[in-house]
C-alpha cells in the first residue's frame, strides 16, 4: 500500500479535506471522517496506543536526506481483526466554560492587528513548508517542527543567526528551506514595524489628550478655589486681617476714617424732599400753607 505517517492517518480519521488525501484516495476508506468529532489530541493518543499495543509499527525511511516514519500493519493486527476484540480507550469529556475577558478600548485594536499579522505569517510559512514537503513526498512535520514555525511567526527573525536561535531550527533544515522562510519573515517583519509605529503614535495622542484634560481640570480647580477665598475674605472679619498687622495706628486711622464717614452720613442734609418739607414745623404753623402749595 501507500506510505502514510501517523499524522496523515490522524488527518484521515478526522476527515480532513486535503489535496494529498484526495489524490491518494484515502478519503474513500471506511475510517475516513470517523473521528470528526474527536479532539486532535485524542486521535493522536489512539494512534500511539495502537503502536504501543503492537497493532501498528513505524518504519523509518530516509529519502533526500530527510527521515520519515511510515506506519505498517503488524501480524497482530490481523489476529485482532479476526477475534472481534475491542480496544478500551478512555476519553475525558469536559464542558467549556465561557470566560469574560476585559480589554481596554485603546489596546484591543492594536493587539488584534498584531495577532492577525502573526497568523498570516504562520499560514504563509506553512504553505511553503507543505509545498516543499509535498515535492519530496514527506510530511511537513519532518521538514520543520510546527512549534518552531509558530515561534518564527511570533518573533519574525530577519537574519539567519536569529532564526537559528529558535528551538528545533538546525543548520540542516535551514539549508533546505530556511532561506525561503527567511524571505517571508523579512516581509512580515516590515509590516510588524509599521504596525508598531502606528501604535506608538496612537499612544502619544492618548497621552496628549490626558495631559490636556488634567491641565484643564487643575486650572478650573485653582480658579474656583480663588473665587471662594475672595468671597470668604469679603464676608469675613476684616479686623482679623488688621490685627495680624500688629500696628495700632493703622487700625486707628481706619476706624477714624470709618467714623468720619459715618458722621458725615448722619449729619449731611439729603435735600428738601417732599415729605421733609411738608413735615417742617414752620410750614405747619403757616395758615396759608395749602395756598402756597
From TrEMBL:
Substrates-to-products reaction catalysed: Couples ATP hydrolysis with the unwinding of duplex DNA by translocating in the 3'-5' direction
HRDC domain span: 115-195
Superkingdom of the organism of origin: Eukaryota
UniProt record, GO biological process: DNA repair; DNA replication
EC top class, as a word: isomerase
UniProt-listed Enzyme Commission number(s): 5.6.2.4
A GO term, aspect molecular function: nucleic acid binding
Biased segments, Basic residues type: 226-244, 254-264
Region (Disordered): 206-278
Pfam families: HRDC, RQC
SMART domains named in the record: HRDC (SM00341), RQC (SM00956)
Protein name: DNA 3'-5' helicase
Protein species of origin: Fopius arisanus
Gene behind this protein: mus309_0
Amino acid at each position: 500500500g501507500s506510505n502514510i505517517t501517523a499524522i496523515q492517518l490522524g488527518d484521515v480519521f478526522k476527515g480532513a479535506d486535503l489535496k494529498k488525501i484526495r489524490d491518494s484516495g484515502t478519503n474513500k476508506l471506511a475510517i475516513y471522517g470517523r473521528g470528526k468529532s474527536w479532539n486532535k489530541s485524542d486521535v493522536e493518543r489512539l494512534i500511539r496506543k495502537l503502536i504501543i499495543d503492537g497493532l501498528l509499527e513505524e518504519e523509518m525511511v530516509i529519502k533526500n536526506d530527510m527521515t520519515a516514519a511510515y506506519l505498517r500493519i503488524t501480524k497482530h493486527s490481523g489476529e485482532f481483526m479476526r477475534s472481534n476484540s475491542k480496544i478500551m480507550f478512555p476519553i475525558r469529556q469536559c464542558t467549556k466554560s465561557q470566560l469574560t475577558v476585559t480589554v481596554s478600548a485603546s489596546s484591543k485594536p492594536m493587539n488584534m492587528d498584531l495577532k492577525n499579522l502573526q497568523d498570516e505569517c504562520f499560514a504563509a510559512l506553512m504553505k511553503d513548508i507543505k509545498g516543499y514537503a509535498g515535492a519530496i513526498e514527506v510530511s511537513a512535520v519532518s521538514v520543520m517542527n510546527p512549534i518552531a514555525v509558530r515561534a518564527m511567526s511570533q518573533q519574525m527573525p530577519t537574519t539567519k543567526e536569529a532564526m537559528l536561535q529558535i528551538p528545533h531550527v538546525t543548520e540542516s533544515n535551514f539549508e533546505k528551506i530556511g532561506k525561503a522562510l527567511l524571505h517571508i519573515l523579512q516581509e512580515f517583519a516590515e509590516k510588524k514595524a509599521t504596525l508598531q509605529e502606528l501604535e506608538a503614535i496612537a499612544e502619544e495622542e492618548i497621552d496628549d489628550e490626558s495631559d490636556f484634560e488634567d491641565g484643564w481640570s487643575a486650572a478650573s480647580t485653582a480658579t474656583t478655589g480663588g473665587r471662594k477665598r475672595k468671597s470668604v475674605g469679603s464676608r469675613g472679619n476684616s479686623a482679623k486681617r488688621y490685627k495680624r498687622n500688629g500696628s495700632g495706628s493703622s487700625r486707628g486711622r481706619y476706624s477714624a476714617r470709618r467714623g468720619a464717614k459715618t458722621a458725615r452720613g448722619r449729619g449731611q442734609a439729603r435735600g428738601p424732599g417732599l415729605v421733609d418739607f411738608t413735615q417742617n414745623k414752620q410750614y405747619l404753623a403757616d395758615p396759608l400753607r395749602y395756598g402756597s402749595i
